[in-house]
Amino acid sequence: MTSLAYPANRSLDVICFGRAGVDLYAREDNVDMTDVSGFDKFVGGSPANIAVALSKLGAKAGLISCVSDDGLGRYVCDYLRSLKVDLKGMTIDKSGSRTSLAITEMKASDCEVVIYRNNAADLALSIKQVDKAYIAQAKILLVSGTALSTSPSREAALAAIRYARDAGTVVILDVDYRAYSWHSPEESSLYYQLAASLSDVVIGNREEFDVMEMLDKQSTEKNDDETAFRYLNDATQVVIIKAGELGSKVYTRDGKNFTQGIFPVEVKKPFGAGDSFAGALMYALLQGHSLQESVKMGSAAAAINVSKKNCTEAMPTREELMDFIATYEAA
Amino acid sequence: MTSLAYPANRSLDVICFGRAGVDLYAREDNVDMTDVSGFDKFVGGSPANIAVALSKLGAKAGLISCVSDDGLGRYVCDYLRSLKVDLKGMTIDKSGSRTSLAITEMKASDCEVVIYRNNAADLALSIKQVDKAYIAQAKILLVSGTALSTSPSREAALAAIRYARDAGTVVILDVDYRAYSWHSPEESSLYYQLAASLSDVVIGNREEFDVMEMLDKQSTEKNDDETAFRYLNDATQVVIIKAGELGSKVYTRDGKNFTQGIFPVEVKKPFGAGDSFAGALMYALLQGHSLQESVKMGSAAAAINVSKKNCTEAMPTREELMDFIATYEAA
Amino acid sequence: MTSLAYPANRSLDVICFGRAGVDLYAREDNVDMTDVSGFDKFVGGSPANIAVALSKLGAKAGLISCVSDDGLGRYVCDYLRSLKVDLKGMTIDKSGSRTSLAITEMKASDCEVVIYRNNAADLALSIKQVDKAYIAQAKILLVSGTALSTSPSREAALAAIRYARDAGTVVILDVDYRAYSWHSPEESSLYYQLAASLSDVVIGNREEFDVMEMLDKQSTEKNDDETAFRYLNDATQVVIIKAGELGSKVYTRDGKNFTQGIFPVEVKKPFGAGDSFAGALMYALLQGHSLQESVKMGSAAAAINVSKKNCTEAMPTREELMDFIATYEAA
Amino acid sequence: MTSLAYPANRSLDVICFGRAGVDLYAREDNVDMTDVSGFDKFVGGSPANIAVALSKLGAKAGLISCVSDDGLGRYVCDYLRSLKVDLKGMTIDKSGSRTSLAITEMKASDCEVVIYRNNAADLALSIKQVDKAYIAQAKILLVSGTALSTSPSREAALAAIRYARDAGTVVILDVDYRAYSWHSPEESSLYYQLAASLSDVVIGNREEFDVMEMLDKQSTEKNDDETAFRYLNDATQVVIIKAGELGSKVYTRDGKNFTQGIFPVEVKKPFGAGDSFAGALMYALLQGHSLQESVKMGSAAAAINVSKKNCTEAMPTREELMDFIATYEAA
């Protein structure tokens, strides 16, 4: 159904590109930011989370990112290294940028997150810090779209994609749209479309595809079929449109599509699902599973993640993932 | 000995000018940043601390500052309001700046502090947000020198000083030098000297006066007498040079000077002393104590603060302060 | 040989995208900048020159650009309008940018040009100022690569290319590399390669292609055949590598190539040749001439231009061009 | 009447601080910018003009400024050097700034001037480029207020004033307000007031003093007496308020004031008067003339300047100035 060709003889399965940072979770559940007594410290940032997800499943994952030269930057690196994420592509910035930081309430809904990303270290990554030979060592390059939001990270990400295409490394774009990082929606649309046209797989939710399409569409109607048709061009072989509780619609270049529902669980937090999904999806594809089977494994991993409190630590191992699916299917 | 004339009939005793932010203290003592499990949340920032110190002692304190429009900004405001600090001069910024944030280890020495002050809210304060009439309601304007480090806060602080002089409000400059906030030491020297020449009282430590003097001095020798002589000009009536464990040297316009030693206590943390000192000093002066007596009360308050773990919460009440001095002097 | 398909029923032949500015030419020839008494005033800027070249040959040309809201901006618009260049795509900026200005000595070689392009008006053009429907009215979009050098003009140019592709408008990229406009050679290489991959025709000289290839090449060897092979991909049908006095090498997608020599004339100034070439080339292609014939007409127009003193005013009419070629071939 | 004390034994009479640039004057009189054929080239910029005025009168003048490293920068330096202006304080900037450039119509009124001052070289001057010892070699430091408009030139100018005060060099502030150079009128008011309080003499017109006073005044009334009273404080001994055709009002610290009318001439251009005035005023003061006599000589020099077409070249020599006054008084 899909014709993604992963290069053989690569020392890494997946290199993730984008931010790695610190998440501070409110110590008390269901308490306003003003009233919490303090915070627990975790590693976060979508591509870092995906790298952890891959590593815990047993894949060889690397991360191209940047943190600041201080205790929080060291913490991020130490934690990732302890989970065997390869950090040859990690830059330690000494120019005054700061490791991305998210301070969050712990609420089921309307969860306030205060983001410290003014002069964020990951967005300070530049072309010169991206090593062409390193990208050529991976089967897949996973790019988090937020890396495209500002220069010089924008150019670093576009160069990474170019290097990947030259090396035969499969490119997967996780749209990961954060409005606050972008100068304007028009710029978002422009660069997302450019990056998508150079990617083998594009993963996003309905709202993210709406932003991507804004320079193209006359009307404001939202039609998954038309969206998929628009993007299954140039390099793109697979388009995955996530729809939260409705599951995911998956479209392929050959004109086919299928839907994968979600695994019902009690949701403990409103984030982590997408990163867990992406990690397990790539792991499954590289293990030789079909696209349909891989999307199912991704959905199961997402369900496991949101049913637990934290993000990186809630990423399942291969065993947990398989047990979860088996239990579900036996029910 | 000193001829500071505080205007009568003012609704506020002291307005502090400068940053207010959040301090996150490592939950575990003597553990590296990389290994702490999380952080406790407090209000911090030198002028905010001083306003709290004044308020706890019973003075009417206000704060001219700026925080971001989010849960952490609201926390800072709620906390200060709960301690009766007047916030008519507080701006809530919605332009993308962030409330100043300091994340600290809890160690007796070599204590790492990771500072998030890229596009800090307090440094986004501009002239238009400073109300001339508000400053005319206070007996003293206490300016934290860090507010001078970058535009537009620099101009807001200089305008505040100008308004204070026009209104007869006594101006006290707390040098509070943080190298990372400044473009160059030359600029620091230039603006500190300008601000000092417009201030009635200048408080700093030896290192801070060295920075202030760098455009003036030929040699690198450090001589407190010469420093005081240099600054006891223009508007300046009192120069206080703090020397840590050696106590403080106080010089006045009439050519006199005295030294105040420290009150020996077991030090729990390496910060908070200066803010507690400044708060109690101003409180005492406004209560009609002599300069010498006031400096002693400031030193006692500093000792109380560093003997406890937190900063704002360790500021003494009037009773605590008086008891502490009485106990010490009885010993 | 080439399969460029120009859309029919378009109200404009070519829309040029990029800077329009003022050229001040030293009044005295062969005199240093320090000693010239003054300057003569002309309209300049590569895409403006090309629009003029087209218009004088009889083609319907438009220009998407931006000038400042002052006498020099009005001069540029008045002059272009007097030559029937369509200015529906012209923006008048009131934000403080300035019309591009070049002040030049008039020397046969080592001719100093002082460029005023800090906050240049043309580089202030943004996506929102580019009208999709306007671009759909033209047969060809000619993009000057300098428009890619900085944001927001970079995004405006990339959006224009995207709109052109959607509308079936043929895209021609004139590399026009000016190092001083770019942040780094790596960024130049990245964006030129992106733009080239979306262009039907790419025109540059050897040095410009070297910059474009710097992210791709291992070695530093310069080989026109390899360069052409690298770029004749994606959308690109024709690659033209100009080599000054050696003429131009033209490569097409079908694997063929040919060389066009120059028309020998006495050179009066070292610029204008490329713009005259591009204008006449596009004019000829749209008139139905073969690629080979069109390149010859471009070369003849270039020769005519450099044999005269000024730039826009030296662009030949159709009659002059045909007479020049006839005279040359009769000799 | 005034007690300005010029230090003796100085190698320079006056050092002017601020911009030096190129003026391009329309070749044709009374023709719109769009229609002029070209421009004549001159040196301009208020402090450069004043230095020239001083030099032509026979005083030893220096200039602290910055031009770009190109033909126009070299032209400025060559011209000033040819008139014996000392350029030890001139910086040649290679960072991408450009020499200040003004392109003007030649009309009696409503004369459009297009200013190229984005990243102007003179505003790139920083503290480190100002030599304390050099300023100590002059009797007077003349600061053009535009130098205060943006960093780092703002700090360089404030440091120069500080160095002058330390060295006993008399400080004269020529307000020279250009709204387009400033971030906001509030900032202008703040820094002009700071600089004025450190200056021995302040020279401006009514509109300039209005800007200076905007942070101080409640009402919008304009009263020269009140303005003078406001500024005759701190260091300031003399305030000169210019009122165009009405002449100048001069106020001194001792509470006295006088008015000097203008010398009637046919005005050829609307600029140059102020620079010629300032130059001749300082020359006369240093020659030992009374303040009243010096202001008269300044007014005569202003009249001579505006009666001729150019600016620097229209500055009178001592002979011309004396003849002009003698002729006038004989009439």
TrEMBL record, chains A, B, C, D:
> What keywords does the record list, in alphabetical order?
ATP-binding, Kinase, Nucleotide-binding, Transferase
Domain Carbohydrate kinase PfkB residue range list = 13-318
> What Pfam family is a match, any one?
PfkB
Enzyme Commission designation: 2.7.1.92
- What class does this enzyme belong to in the EC scheme? transferase
GO MF entries: 5-dehydro-2-deoxygluconokinase activity
Q: Which SUPFAM superfamilies match?
A: Ribokinase-like
CDD domains associated with the record: KdgK
Tell me which domain of life the UniProt entry assigns to the organism this sequence originates from. Bacteria
**Of which family is this protein a member?**
Belongs to the carbohydrate kinase PfkB family.
This chain's protein is named 5-dehydro-2-deoxygluconokinase
Q: Per the UniProt entry, what species is this protein from, by scientific name?
A: Marinomonas colpomeniae
Q: What is the lineage of its organism?
A: Bacteria, Pseudomonadati, Pseudomonadota, Gammaproteobacteria, Oceanospirillales
